[in-house]
Sequence to fold (209 residues):
Amino acid sequence: MSKPFIADHPLIQHKLTLLRDKNTGAKEFRELVAEIAMLLCYEATRDLPLKEVEIETPMAFAKTKVISGRKLAFVPILRAGIGMVDGVLEMVPAAKVGHIGLYRDHVTCQPVEYYCKLPSDIHEREVIVLDPMLATGGSAIDAIRMIKEKGVTNIKFMCIIAAPEGLNALVEAHPDVQVFCAALDEKLNENKYIIPGLGDAGDRIFGTK
Ligand code: PRP
Ligand code: URA
Fold:
């Protein structure tokens, strides 16, 4: 089992406070989601392999390093995961992007699949799944199952806020998938929303409520 990474960086904590605030409007909310995703991406890509190359600086020849081999794909879970894509692509512009559409049924809180479009060579890639919220874990567990069914063996999950219930469920269902998050919150409420959380991430990103 991979140990979850829970960020304690001051920049992430500061931005997360602004994100949680109910008075933060959609424009700033979107910017903060992208910025936090970019900072988490820095941690989630820490183990990318390097190879040595020789280049010429204006001053001398130098042996230096570039990322080698492993190709990345990001897969946001629609809708709210879309908000994280620009931030991670700032860090890894050559990555491919797939999309998985899942929404939580309002009564059962179970994920319902409505879309799946993944890069054709996804089985050759390391995949980072993106969703700001890990609540019960149902959406993340299903999305990762769908990606594994395409033959992908190297998957990470990146979220902004996780609930203990969702984190435990995800680790149990997919112990090989490392989770990267900006905060581990207290609990879920009776409607399976994260407390204190930030409310409905999709609605706040897209201004739909
Ligand atoms: C939210 C969130 C996750 C899911 C988390 O999406 O973005 O995908 O809920 O909940 P879970 O861990 O209990 O599955 P939602 O279903 O509200 O859809 P949306 O992004 O389209 O608003
Ligand atoms: N989805 C959200 O957007 N927020 C929560 O707190 C739980 C699920």
The longest strand covers residues 71-78. The chain is about 30% helix and 30% strand. The pocket of uracil (ligand 2) is lined by residues 80, 133, 135, 193-194, 197, 200-202 (CB under 6 Å).
